Amino acid sequence: xxNTTAWNRFRYSAYAxxxxxVVSRALxxxxxxxxxxxxWEPGMRVLLVGAGTGLDLPFxxxxxxxxxxxxxxxxxKRARDRAERYQRDVNCQVMDASALTFDDEHFxxxxxxxxxxxxxxxxxxxxxxxxxxxxxxxxxxxxxxQPDHQPAGAMRRAANIMTSFIATDITRQATPLxxxxxxxxxHDEPVLMNGLFRALLAxx
Length: 204
Prior knowledge:
Blueprint: H1 5-23, H2 28-36, E1 45-49, E2 65-70, H3 73-85, E3 90-94, E4 107-113, H4 122-132, E5 133-144, H5 154-166, H6 174-180, E6 184-192, E7 197-203
């Protein structure tokens, strides 16, 4: 299997120095749209899973308790540096999204941007997000998804062999994944590349 946790740790360690150059500007608007869907309140405890270099931080309201996790120490180092630049007090921990070490029902909001299409087992990642969310918690997802009504065809599955090796799976469907984990989708909006990228807000 090309997409494994060990391979993700290796390749994103290599990508870390160039990640912002490639991703920051291209997905700036998509991040803002996704995060604007959340019903924010002061004092919320927020978890960014697979936070990368912290590119979501500029779009988060103040007066939040913010926790960042990522599989890759190199990514988190850049997230800490970004938090300092924006004068944000954050807690950063190296952690596998499929085995979070937080207590049950600990967070008001979980943010999963550009991780469900990357991790080997998105079902387990969503199960962990569901576990650590409070009963009325919100899940914010932004990622690349195959349309829910259209399973991936042969050409897309063939292309997925290469894209999964380099960066990301392009055959996953958002609605089945979220509903299987127990989430109720409240909002679903295309944000980039004719709907390849979607922003979804779901409730527990």
